[in-house]
């Protein structure tokens, strides 16, 4: 539903006293009925004004009809997002990322996915000029890798060269060389032999997926409540595999100026401090007599 002032546009209810013989004005775009032409005309003007935003992409400055089309395209893109990538990305966001800015979250996930493939993911095996649809059946690590301690400013991600992948052909596909087909599923391949289509997980599509899968919770982006029960049953090995990465933690900062700490201990006495050259009486009232005497002596 297109948003107006960040809220779903309210649809007018059919007046309860409308009769079948009454003259009404039907607005097909919003599926509304009006008994007054002026109200019908005002609604039509509103729907054609650039006051709306897309619920899924957050794009603003749209008419009602443009926002509807934007939501339609967004839903289509989300429907084509690979389920296995969804699982791995949501597990990463839930357990390894702590970002208060959405752009930082998007960059971390995009960097992690670059030249990285996951168990169950469907991609293409590149053989010369041919691309054969395959499925990742296993992730193998050639050597140990650990994140450097003390480096908390930049993401630390295992290099793609330490991974090898076992593959299987997706149903209906075979190796072009029949003699090599039997050994294919027994072999291991590096990331340069594989290809993930840009249309599958491009950065704009990844941004759309994260926007509709994450919310801000406790100062950081976390996955929505409806995903938590499924994602919390996963482990790193089942979701991603290999040595885990290390990302900077930059939660959302609290807005507003914080009060400065008081260095001096406040006085507990309610009596004002006397100025130099003055005195106080028993009731704590300032007396200027010493200063006055000094002035009279100077005049003499």
TrEMBL record:
What GO molecular function annotations does the UniProt record carry, in alphabetical order? DNA binding
Compartments annotated for it: namely: Nucleus
Where do the record's region annotations for Disordered lie? Answer: 239-277
| Pfam family, any one | WAC_Acf1_DNA_bd
Give residue ranges for domain WAC: 22-131
Keywords per UniProt: Nucleus
Xref: InterPro entries: BAZ1A, WSTF_Acf1_Cbp146
Source superkingdom: Eukaryota
GO cellular component assignments: CHRAC; nuclear chromosome
Report whether Nucleus shows up as a keyword of the record: yes
PROSITE patterns, sorted: WAC (PS51136)
One biological process GO term for this chain? regulation of heterochromatin formation
RNA-binding keyword on record: no
Compositional bias of type Polar residues: which residue ranges? Answer: 260-277
Kindly give the PANTHER family that the UniProt entry links to this protein.
Answer: BROMODOMAIN ADJACENT TO ZINC FINGER DOMAIN PROTEIN 1A
What's this protein's name?
WAC domain-containing protein
Naturally occurring in which organism (per UniProt): Cylicostephanus goldi (Nematode worm)
